[in-house]
Amino acid sequence: MKIIVDAFGGDNAPAEVLKGCQLAVSELDGVEIILTGDKDVIEKSAKEHQVSLDHMEICHASQVMDIHIEPTALLKDFSDSSMAVGCRLLAEKKGDAFVSAGSTGALVVGATFLVKRIKGIKRVTIGSVIPCKGGCYLLTDAGANADCRPEMLLQFAVMGSIYMQKFFGLPSPRVGLVNIGAEETKGTQLQLDAYRLLKDAPVHFTGNIEPRDIPLGGCDVAVADGFTGNVILKLTEGMGSFISKEVKSLFTGGPVSMLSALGVRKQLMSFKKQMDYKEYGGAPLLGAAGLVIKAHGSSDAKAFKNAIRQAVQCSKQNVVSEMTKAIANLRAQS
Amino acid sequence: MKIIVDAFGGDNAPAEVLKGCQLAVSELDGVEIILTGDKDVIEKSAKEHQVSLDHMEICHASQVMDIHIEPTALLKDFSDSSMAVGCRLLAEKKGDAFVSAGSTGALVVGATFLVKRIKGIKRVTIGSVIPCKGGCYLLTDAGANADCRPEMLLQFAVMGSIYMQKFFGLPSPRVGLVNIGAEETKGTQLQLDAYRLLKDAPVHFTGNIEPRDIPLGGCDVAVADGFTGNVILKLTEGMGSFISKEVKSLFTGGPVSMLSALGVRKQLMSFKKQMDYKEYGGAPLLGAAGLVIKAHGSSDAKAFKNAIRQAVQCSKQNVVSEMTKAIANLRAQS
According to a count of CB atoms within 10 Å of the terminal CB, is the N or C end of chain A lower? Predict the structure, then answer.
């Protein structure tokens, strides 16, 4: 299996990307890597960090798509960037999946216009896997499309459900529509219309989910427009950061509280691990005709390895072809 | 000063309401209460719980507006409910403010159609005061109006800013527009248009606020449509509940962790207090021509006392007349 990896995506590129690829190659059976990016810089960085490039090939790309650049520039001014080249390689089926920790907006553009969409898909959506009570849930759309129509939410639900089935092995993921009340009559016109579509959709639709119940594990797939989804994603991060700082400060008040911290050290570490996004891999871009995984911008070697493992697993489970089939069925029914 | 109190609002009515009123009368100087609700039941409950009704009068109302009843029923089928009677007493200036822990939706209806709106106000909005790093912030609209127009967000910002000035004594509250990016070009059409209005508004507008920065104390007033605001309110509650349960479980794993909990007991209690909504009083309904405070549905006596204190303080600070002036100025300018 060949995974294409953007060597210049993320805050720690290329060194941590290369280390992550090396870990993946050594730990995962039969995985080969195609690195995209400046050949000289990659080879120099590999040498400097003593990373072996065994089972990796480099596909040269002269540019880097900085996160501050307007996403659509990927198609024109940055068409020889490591990200654009990676997308094109995937479209040409030179690899089984593409992993990048670069600009989310640009990757959505690349997935949409270079990898291209699954037939019938209106918009590529970002699925963020977020820790919650008892595990994690998939939030989609997590920010790719601020404005959404009801049919888009239906497609997000179908694809999100397949992702949770195939990647996390849930037999019947509970799909919830993010809304401000449990009743069918709640929300704006978007939620009212989406509710009607979801009721008849080929997913295990459990009705509206109120944001209060999301962190408590109330659903496996939380469906929302990209504005609401991004608010949820960022507020979850902000609350996590706020509360973890407060909890940390509980233990630094003096010798007694510092001793107390030692007493629950193991539990604290395990909780921290549970809340760590990196444990759940990157965010899948759902709706593209090839498998695209967005790794966190701050990914370290381990996070890159996990994202590659995620790509391998999704590829083995035929996630994209399952979605293609489901979307075709959806079109046939409507 | 006379505060009208709905004796039949909330999960713990009327007993906790009455106890809260007694606390308010004994602790706050010169405060008198008008209780609305069934006279017999109130007197019986007061006797049963040994609550003195000194400095309180009862204004009889034969009905109770249950939270499951369609809010607009307040105007017709439940026009003799304790809530409707309270709203009318306020409109008739029989009291300085009205406090209720009943149905939020019904109270918005009552504030809008019985108390009536400040001249020029398009919609009454709920302002929720939410704990964050270093204190609290006002979220408005917290759920009264799922669909909003940009001019409504402008009015929410102006009123929210006055509330934080007058009630919390902030000289220049930082007003942020809830959005999914810091740049002026982010969000849906609503945020784009609201941004333009807020730039020229008579508030200390600090630009877009990303939800990640809200719990970290990034603004004093977070302005949003009621759908987004309600998502923020409920997700904040859910995250708080989720993480506090997880933290609690850290300390119950065995004798060592239980001893550790003792070591940080004081800090834990202080953190819990900081995160307790009840400490910040009820939610003001902004835009009504009289002062209406929505107390939490689960309010106990202390929470009712705090909501009454809040009503007294807002009344002394002329919050409603300040808002009336500001909205008139806004109209004159546009």
Answer: C
Q: Of A131, A171, A129, nearest to A285 (Cα)?
A: A129
Contact criterion met (CB < 8 Å) for B216 and A260: no
Q: What average pLDDT does chain B have? A: 94
pLDDT tens-digit series, residues B94-129:
999 999 999 999 999 999 999 999 999 999 999 999
Distance CA B86, CA A265 (A): 53
Whether B229 and B142 have beta carbons less than 8 Å apart is answered as yes
What are the structure tokens assigned to A83, written together?
């990200």
How far, in Å, CA of B303 to CA of B12, rounded?
Answer: 11
B323: left (phi over 0), alpha (psi -120 to 50) or beta: alpha
From chain A, the residues in CB contact with B254 under 8 A are none
Residue B266 pLDDT exceeds 90: no
Distance CA A304, CA A73 (A): 25
Is B194 touching A (CB cutoff 8 A)?
A: no
> DSSP H helical segments within chain B, as ranges?
15-27, 39-48, 82-91, 104-110, 150-168, 189-199, 226-250, 255-263, 265-274, 301-316, 319-333
Predicted pLDDT at A268: 74
Taking contacts as CB-CB distances below 8 angstroms, the residues of chain A near B235 are 211-212, 214-215, 232, 235-236, 239
Which helix (H) or strand (E) segment is A195 a member of? helix A189-199
Tell me which residue of B27, B16, B6, B12 sits closest to B49, measured CA to CA.
B16
How far apart are the C-alpha atoms of B159 and B126, rounded to whole Å? 11
Give the tens place of pLDDT for each residue, B198-240.
Answer: 999 999 999 999 999 999 999 999 999 999 999 999 999 999 8
Q: What are phi and psi of A314, to 5 degrees?
A: -60, -40
Rounded to whole angstroms, the Cα distance separating A151 from B27 reads 57
Nearest CB neighbour to A250, from listed B147, B186, B264: B264
Q: Tokens 């990640």 sit at which residue?
A: B212
How far, in Å, CA of B38 to CA of A114, rounded?
69
Which pLDDT score is estimated for A221?
98
Q: What is the pTM of this model?
A: 0.94
Q: Residue B197 carries which side chain, given as an amino acid letter?
A: L
Residue B136 and residue B276 in contact, taking contact as beta carbons nearer than 8 Å: no
Q: How many residues does chain A have?
A: 334
Q: Which of A146, A188, A259 sits opposite B146 (nearest CB)?
A: A188
ipTM of the complex: 0.92
